Amino acid sequence: EIVMTQSPATLSVSPGERATLSCRASQSVSSNLAWYQQKPGQAPRLLIYGASTRATGIPARFSGSGSGTEFTLTISSLQSEDFAVYYCQQYNNWPRGTFGQGTKLEIK
Amino acid sequence: EVQLVESGGGLVKPGGSLRLSCAASGFTFSSYSMNWVRQAPGKGLEWVSSISSSSSYIYYADSVKGRFTISRDNAKNSLYLQMNSLRAEDTAVYYCAREAQPVDYWGQGTLVTVSS
Predict the structure, then answer these.
(1) Low-confidence residues of chain A, pLDDT below 70?
(2) Residue A57 per-residue DSSP state
(3) Nearest CB to B103: which of A46, A96, A102?
(4) Neighbours of B47 (CB within 10 A)
(5) CA-CA distance, B56 to B58, in Å (whole number)?
(6) Residue B109 to residues A16, A42, B7, B22, B64: CA-CA distances in angstroms?
(7) Contact partners, residue B27, CB within 8 Å, separation at least 6
(8) What residue ranges in chain A does DSSP mark as E strands?
(9) How confident is the model over B6-32, as pLDDT tens digits?
(10) What is the DSSP letter of B100?
(11) In the prediction, which pLDDT does A108 show?
């Protein structure tokens, strides 16, 4: 099984600042990496797929990078609605797509 | 607009059974593989099972293999999860999710609580 490890577990950032979230795979997943946002009581929402392609309707302040085993999600200027939990998921080993444990992005 | 609406969750005793349903609309259901993904209270996301568009290929996580059965009815635009021999550790919100490599749409989820 491919293990996905996200860091940090919690990230405190002020509105308007940049947030950088990391995700590491235990073995190469090529660019088959997605990022999801989940707010309390809601289902996850797809933000990024193919490591760097924004999903439909996702604002340009969200960007993804990386390949192989190291990936990053960057939110360039945090808005109030961006404070949530973020998950990465590899789908290189489809259908056994494994998720990271999540990073909680909280207001500083 | 893509919509996925789960139903069938509830409280069940250990060893009991439950059948979840997911009604899909807003897309050609028969063209997509579908998944069940669960989330235990306060925890992360766990893939449970996948089924291909024509039901030819079916996969399960090791944690549910032999106890859960995924199925679909393309004529009814519906996805199902039959859960037997339920355990306390199966307590979670169960999401129906459309597969587009990766999952691109999720339902709102249905809560399954396994407790005596």
Answers:
(1) none
(2) T
(3) A46
(4) 23
(5) 7
(6) 32, 8, 8, 9, 18
(7) B2, B98
(8) 4-7, 10-13, 19-25, 33-38, 45-49, 53-54, 62-67, 70-75, 85-90, 98-99, 103-107
(9) 999 999 999 999 999 999 999 999 999
(10) S
(11) 87
Both structure tokens of A16: 């308007």
Which candidate, A100, A99, A93, places its Cα nearest to that of A28? A93
Q: Say how far apart CA B72 and CA A70 lie, in whole Å.
A: 36
- Give the pLDDT score at B20: 98
Q: pLDDT of A91-100, one tens digit each?
A: 998 888 899 9
Facing A44 at nearest CB: one of B47, B99, B106 = B106
Q: How wide is the angle at C-alpha B108 spanned by C-alphas A60 and B44, nearest 5°?
A: 75
Residue A98 forms contact with B (CB below 8 Å): yes
